[in-house]
Amino acid sequence: MRALRYVYMLALVVWLGGMIVLGALVAPATFQVLQASAPDTGRALAGELFGAVLARFHYLAYAAAAVLLLSMAAMALLGPRPRGLAVRGIIVGAMLAVAVYSGVVVIGRINAIQREVGGLPSRLPADDARRVRFDELHTLSTRLMMLNVLGALALLYWEAGE
Question: By the 8 A CB rule, do 1 and 21 touch?
């Protein structure tokens, strides 16, 4: 049982840590460095780079969710059922749904706009519908990741109490 709980915690910490590192360190540093080194093209390159990193991270999130769900199922089958298992499962399932929606739908729409405008929607006029939509999708993507951070923090808090 201890090994299953360890695997569960490891997957949770990897997912949570990845979200925090991406949002707090990788994105700001990527945009800051690339914009400073290439003022004309740096922002577009930073967007491409961070988009690729984020797309790969989504696969890590899907894997972490699968490990969380499988380890919870195994804990329920092999030993005394952990407290609040159903609620934890719902939280992980909701986090997975949010990650899939963000990774497939939202990022897919962002990429479509970027292809349509040739890479950098921020160069469009502020009232251009594509720029407005891009900004809305970017905000939605950020909020979805924050929602998953909150879910992961709730699960981590729950585990800390046991």
Answer: no
CB 19 within 8 A of CB 142: no
Domain range list for the chain: 2-160
126 vs 79, more confident: 126
Contact present, 122 and 43 (Cβ < 8 Å): yes
51 Cβ neighbours under 8 A, 6+ residues apart: 107, 110, 111, 114
**Amino acid symbol at 126:** A
Count of CB atoms within 10 A of residue 30's CB? 19
Over the stretch 119-129, which tens digit does the pLDDT of each residue have? 788 888 999 99
**Which is it for the CA torsion 138, 140, 144, 147, positive or negative?**
positive
C-alpha 68: how far from chain center = 16
